[in-house]
Amino acid sequence: MTQKGTATELGNQPIGKLLTQYAIPAIIAMTASSLYNMVDSIFIGHGVGAMAISGLAITFPLMNLAAAFGSLVGVGASTLVSVKLGQKDYSTAQQILGNVVSLNLIIGILFTILTLAFLDPILYFFGASEVTLPYARDYMVTILLGNVVTHMYLGLNSVLRSAGHPQKAMAATILTVVINILLDPLFIYGFGMGIRGAAIATILAQIISLCWLIKIFCNKNELLHFRRGIYRLKGVLVENIIGIGLAPFFMNVASCMIVILINKGLKLYDGDLAIGAFGIVNRIVFLFVMIVMGLNQGMQPIAGYNFGARQFHRVNHVMKLTVIAATIVTTSGFLVGELMPELAVSAFTTDSKLIEQSARGLRITVMFFPIIGFQMVTSNFFQSIGMAKKAIILSLSRQVLILIPCLLILPLFWGADGIWFSMPISDILASLIAGFMLYNQFKQFKQKAAEIN
C-alpha cells in the first residue's frame, strides 16, 4: 500500500478495525513507557533506598514541566498532520515535520539552560529537603542534559504515528523501554552510580531510539521525510501547532503545579516519607492513565482525519468506542487499588511504613477512578479535532479549577488526608463538566451531518 493509501484508509476502513489497528500499538508503547518509569522507581527503591524514592518524587514537577513543552510541539504537530492529511494537503504536512525539528531544538536547549542555572532553588521550591535534595539533583542534572534528545524523540514519534505508522511508533517506544530496563541495573548496581545511573540509562535509551526515528524520516520513499526547505519556522504553522498543543501544555503545567502542592503539603503534614508514598501511588496510577493515553493516541488520527473530511458520523463512532475502552481500563485500576493495594506498592519497597502509607493513599486516589477515563478521552477528543479552546477548558477544569483549590483548602481541615481526598473529588466533578460539553458537541455534529445529507 502507498503512503497516501495508508493515510486515506482512515476515512474508509471500519472504525473498530482502525481503532484497534492504531490504539493497540500506542497502548503497548505507552504501557511500556509507564513500565520503564516504574522499573526506574523499583530499581531505585530497592537499590538506593526509601529516601531516594522521595527524591525521585521531588523531580516529578520538573519532569511534568519538561513534558509540557514537549507536548506543546509534539501533540500539536501530530494533530495538525492528521487534519492536513485528511484534507490531502501533503505539502503542508511536510512543512510541519520540519518545523517540529526546529521547534524542539530551540525549546529543548532553552529549557535546559534555564533550569540547570536555577536547579537547586527549583527543587527546594518543589518540596526537597536537605535529605532528598542530593537524590533529586543527581537525577535531574543528567535528565536535563539530555532534554533536547527527549523532546526530539517524543516529537518525531508523535508525527510518525499520525503519518500512518503506529506500529513503527510503537516499536520506537518499546526499543527505548527495553534498552532502559537493561541498562538500569548495569548503571545503578554494576557501576554503582545510584540514582544518577537510572537517569543515564534513560537518556542513552532515548538516544538510540532517536537515531532509528531519524533513519526512518531520512527515507525519501516515506510520505513525510526530511528534505531541504522544511526547517525554516513558518508563523502560521507555528501558531497552529502551539494553538492546538496548548491544551496538553496547560495540562502538564497544571500537573507540575499540582505535584508541587502535593509534595509541599505532604512534607508539611506528614514528612519526607509521605512524598515517597505519593511517588509510588503516582507510578501505579500512571500505568492505567498511560493506557488511556494510548487509546487517545489511537483515536487522534482517526478523529482528526475524519473531522477534516467532514465525516462526522465516523468522528462520533470512534469517540464512543474509545470511551468504552477507557472506562474498562480505569475500572481495572480501581479494582487493583481497592482490592490489592499492599501487593501493588510492595513491588517498589520493603520499607513497612512506606508500604502502609502508599497503600492507604492508593485506595483513596482511585476511589472514583472508573469515570476518569471518560474525562480524559473527552478532553483529547476536542484536541484531536482541533477545538483547542474546549480541550483547554476541560484540561484546566480538573487540574486548576477544581484540584488546586481542593489541595489548598482541604488540608487545612483534614491535614494529609485532605491532600489525598482532593484527587477523587476533582475526578468526579471534572467528569460532570466533560459530559455536559460532549453532549452539546454531539448535538452540533448531528446538525452538521443533517445539513450535508
What does this structure look like?
This protein has 453 residues and is an all-alpha fold. It has helices at residues 3-8, 15-47, 50-58, 60-86, 90-117, 119-125, 133-145, 147-162, 166-190, 194-217, 235-270, 272-308, 312-339, 341-345, 352-365, 372-384, 388-414, 416-452. The chain is globular, with a radius of gyration of 21 Å. Belongs to the multi antimicrobial extrusion (MATE) (TC 2.A.66.1) family. MepA subfamily.
Brief overview:
Helices cover 85% and strands 0% of the residues.
Inertia-based shape:
globular
SS elements, strand count: 0
Helical residue percent band? over 70%
Question: Strand-residue fraction?
Answer: under 5%
Low-confidence stretches: 1-6
Rg, alpha carbons = 21 Å
Average pLDDT taken over every residue: 87
- In whole angstroms, the N-to-C terminal distance is 31 Å
Number of H- or I-type helical stretches: 18
Report on the biggest sheet.
Answer: none
Strand-pairing-aware structural class? mainly alpha
SSE diagram, text form:
Layout: H1 3-8, H2 15-47, H3 50-58, H4 60-86, H5 90-117, H6 119-125, H7 133-145, H8 147-162, H9 166-190, H10 194-217, H11 235-270, H12 272-308, H13 312-339, H14 341-345, H15 352-365, H16 372-384, H17 388-414, H18 416-452
Helix pairs in contact: 2-3, 2-9, 2-12, 3-7, 3-12, 4-5, 4-8, 4-11, 4-12, 5-8, 6-7, 7-10, 8-9, 8-10, 9-10, 11-12, 11-17, 12-13, 12-15, 12-16, 13-16, 16-17, 16-18, 17-18
